[in-house]
Structure prediction request, 995 residues.
Amino acid sequence: MKKMIKKVLFGALLVGAVAVMGACSETVEGTEKDSGGKDSSSYPTKPIEIVVPAGAGGDTDLNTRTMAKYLEKELGTTMIITNVNAAGGTTGTKKVLDSKPDGYTVLSYHNSTLISKILGLVDYTYSDFDVAGMGVMDKGNAFVVNNKSEFKSLDDLIAFAKENPEKVTVATEVGSFTHLQLLAFEAATGTKFNIVDVGGASDKITALLGGRIDIIPTQLGLVNSYVESGDFRALGIMSDERLKAAPDVPTFKEQGVDLVMDKFFFWGFPKGTPEEIVDTFTKALEKVVANEEYQKEMEGFMVEPVYLNPAEANELMEKEDKFYTELNPQ
Amino acid sequence: MVGKYSDVFSGLFLLLISVGMFTATFSFKALTVSKVGPDFMPKIIACLIALVSIAIIVSAFNKLKEKKSLEIQTVEEETSVTVEESEEKTYLPVILSLALMVGYLILMPYVGFLIMTAVYLFFQMYVLSDKSNKRLVLFIVVSIVSSAVTYFIFRSIFYVMLPSGILG
Amino acid sequence: MIEMLLAGFTSVMTIKIILLIVMGVALGLVFGSIPGLTATMAIAICLPITYGMDPIAGMSLLMGLYIGGVSGGLIPAILLKLPGTPSSIATTFDGYPMAQKGEAGKAFSFAIVSSFLGGLLSIIVLIMIAPPLGKIALQFGPFEYFAIVIFSLTLIASLSGDSLPKGVMAGLIGIGFAMVGSAPIDAFPRFTFGFSSLDAGFDLLPVLIGLFAISEILLVAEKKYKNKLKVDIKNISYKVTIKEYLDQKWNFLRSSVIGVGIGILPGIGGGTANLIAYAAAKNASKTPEKYGEGIPNGVVASESSNNAAIGGALVPLVSLGIPGDTVTAMLLGGLILHGLQPGPLLMQNHGDVVFGIFAALLIANIFMALFLFIGMKGFIRLLSIPQNILLPIIITLCVVGAYGVNSRLFDVGALLFFGVLGYFMVKFKYPLTPLVLGFILGPLLETNLRRGLMLSQGDFMPFLTEPIAAFFLLVTVASLGLKFYSGWKKKRRLKVY
Prediction:
């Protein structure tokens, strides 16, 4: 009997706690429940689970959560974000692939889906999903050095690397998008680096701050505060044009290296999801990207809100897939 | 199960495991050019497990020898200890508990967390009780209430998507 | 500094924020105290809720959860021998025997006071000298990590129980299990035997609660529960004299410093801090044989170090924007979503928020101790719930916790597997703790070895010549040597008899 009292007390405590927190977060949960109807066009009728194959708090997670906040308003249902951070994202991707194609489980991930297949780690890729489109791209993929570094520009780096092959130490996470960037850079410039695995985004920052490596390829948005503080310097970004948020950082193209690599974030349903459901989701995506509030928030993270419909997204990924395969990271 | 040869058995078992582990490493491929590949550490650990398991077996035999020489003097003590240890130990409830847990796990995706948990709780409580404290009504109430409370809190408030099974 | 802190206090001294801290601490304690649910889970669940709040309010709630979640683990550790979280494994070693002797109240008093003081000390360190301490973390690269992991692994020797070979074996098994799944660096799936669900390997949580909680229920099933209390809960002594507290001062200081130090190093975390502090206390003691039989020193070492690791883990986060563990990684995400760029400029640009966080930490620390002291007698009453009812409920909560890790039933299966493994290990008299230590540290060892070799382009020498690495390796060799020497001396003395 005592256990029951305890249980009820625990329960009451939990419910109370949540109620208070809920009250404080009314601003987030401004969901409208006005979509009626019962047939398949009434999607969604229950919460949608978004699987993020990356840790809570990382850039994939933040981009997804921000998008989800606006999607909730557009679709009129709750978005539940599940972080499945294991085995380089393959576990989460597989989870979506294996789930019911009913529109209530959706994947939000990036370039790594393509790379895992190319590396032979998994036997599925973007085309095994019903892609719903893209809502954001990170065009700030940069080469960053410690401010004390002798390299002031890509030219310095290339000249030094050509004379001293395998002497420039560059950090990456083997098999990740940045690893491909390095291989592409080596191929484009005829240089050879000592490519070293140091771990994820924050481990790279630690290693560069600690002076153990010469260059980290990373996204500008993740190191912006270190650039501001004068600890780091960005040598350039791999996009078509300079970023609005960082007009001082030149592109690789400007510096004579013809290399454009953007990190894209796509939404994918398991194969066989009804077309009208994917369509509803895509339309919501398009509306959110057009929303100025969303655009402003995304620019705060130094990423670019871009809407790509499923056909465009598939086309882009097909192109990238070919490019990555040619680089052959093995 | 736990006889005087238990260390010998566990040592031999681990020795076998280490051999299996070592053989499995030969299929590992390195995806990067590096001094040591993904098979380096597993090989080392497999060898260490083999070494330590041999040490365990040897020391077990040594102890057995020592015991034999001492046994004659301390027969009484020995028997009293073993009697105490084997007092009312039955392995049936252990096997039943295990079977319950496995069943709970296997059926959960089909039946759902809510029902399976209540069912599991009831039977597990039953298995753990002896005649003096089989209070079935209490078990049923506690099972249902705690399953419902857990399910509600985690699924509806914390959004941990516990399997809903036939109820979903 | 003082002014900033005062400003911080004024910004959190609103009814709403205090209420959030109180709720955070309470919820954290609940999550921490239920085996299978952890501070990490509590924060992951509440993170989205904070997105709608202003930064100070949101972070205050998370700090309450963090402190509560790490501290709550001491309750089941002392009463039921179940570590509520990885941070309280070592608390079970002496806390539970104390409870068995009828000293549960005393164990709680020691644990709560050490948690409070350990937390307080680390928060003060965080406020005063975060920037220079953060710089130390930067000095640790793969060579240094490799050495410090080797050093930590040798502690298995002190945590082995009766038989050193068996302890070492358990540690090796732990390292072996950590190898299942994608290899570090090149992600080649090892020991998966073609099952793609094994690609991700085993998560620490199912391993830990499987080994400790599931195996426990199997052991209880063996004897069948008798409605008989081992401990008379009406006659429990709560009294601890000032002198008894003062006797712990060196132990407390050493353990707290270890906690802060390990907290600062990204990647090692509070799960190991308590074990290392315990082993250090045992090694430094004149009566190491009393450890494990219910000596307050063990409780003090474990509980002061795990709370001290909180402040430590926040040091690199606040001063450099580098997260030390999964919890601080989530806090980092929380800061970014609020538009605060974590990094070297955080303190300068958003000093108000940072000092608000400090103030919230101090307040949460006080509430944590307060709640635990008030609840102490109630927790002890948990012992009067028949185990045949309590344990099954704990099992289902473990299942929820394991499932919550990655929302898949595989982790629940892993939980059962390690439960059975733990049962057989206990039956064959193998200690469980070295397995957990090996499981946590094994991947760090391998990853840093391989990363170091990549960095040095295949040269093993830097592992021995880098000053910090060399220092830790020397200490390792020295402490092992000392251990074997004293063991040998003891044996010789025995032979004389």
Notes: The first strand of chain A starts at residue 48 and ends at 52. The CA atoms of residues 115 and 175 of chain A lie 7 Å apart. Chain A touches chain C through 71 residues (CB under 8 Å). The domain at 45-138+263-327 of chain A is CATH 3.40.190.150 (D-Maltodextrin-Binding Protein; domain 2).
